[in-house]
Amino acid sequence: MAGFQARSPVLEHHTFDEVRQMAAANFVVLIPAATVEQHGPHLPCDVDNLIVEYYCKQAAARQPDACTMAPVIPFGFNEHNMGFRGCIHISEHTLVDMYADLARSFVRMGFRKILFVNGHGSNPPFLQIAARKVVNATEALVGVCSHWDLISDKIRELRESEFPGGCAHAGELETSLY
């Protein structure tokens, strides 16, 4: 199946046979994972999801013969923010199980390379545990990265706010990206 090129960067826009061809062509599945939460009075609650979904869709569109984007996982760990309206929280064990189940679903489809692309600061430990569970139980390679880690050089170059403030939650970075 070498040479298969996806007609859409989004996995769910494909037929089951096209998904089979992507798996056979050893595509990487990008899984955007974030949350719904408050972002101050100036940003909507979809910031984390919208940003990470955009990055994943752009990456898959630029590499139509190498990767595809799974549906965004719009919920994450948010217990610490539940005092704010607009937040949705999933408990730790449920979250790890959900992330692992999603990754295993792609493994069962035949994919062997999966990358969780995180968009919410509290998700990484749960994504890491889920990735480890899948790696330990299957032949798949499963990794985790946060979108801001991919652009740290640009953040240092372009940020206007002083360190350490400004690029944290709902600050300069998220506001600029949104």
List the main descriptive attributes of the protein structure presented here.
12% strand, 178 residues, alpha/beta, 6 helices, single chain
Shape: globular
Spatial strand arrangement across the major sheet = 2-1-3-4
Give the end-to-end Cα distance, rounded to a whole number of Å: 38 Å
Please write the string of helix (H) and strand (E) elements: HEHEHEHEHH
Q: What is the beta-strand fraction?
A: 5-15%
Overall pLDDT metric: 94
Record field, number of beta strands: 4
Fraction in helix: 25-40%
Class based on secondary structure composition and strand pairing:
alpha/beta
Instruction: Point out poorly predicted stretches.
Output: none
The count of helical stretches stands at 6
| Quaternary structure annotation | single chain
Main sheet specs: 4 strands, parallel
**Rg, Å, rounded:** 17 Å
Describe the structure.
- By secondary structure, the protein is an alpha/beta fold.
- The protein has helices at residues 16-24, 47-62, 92-109, 124-137, 152-158, 172-177, and strands at residues 28-33, 67-69, 113-118, 141-146.
- A four-stranded parallel sheet has the order 2-1-3-4, with helices on both faces.
- Helix 3 (92-109) crosses helix 4.
- The model has no long low-confidence stretch (mean pLDDT 94).
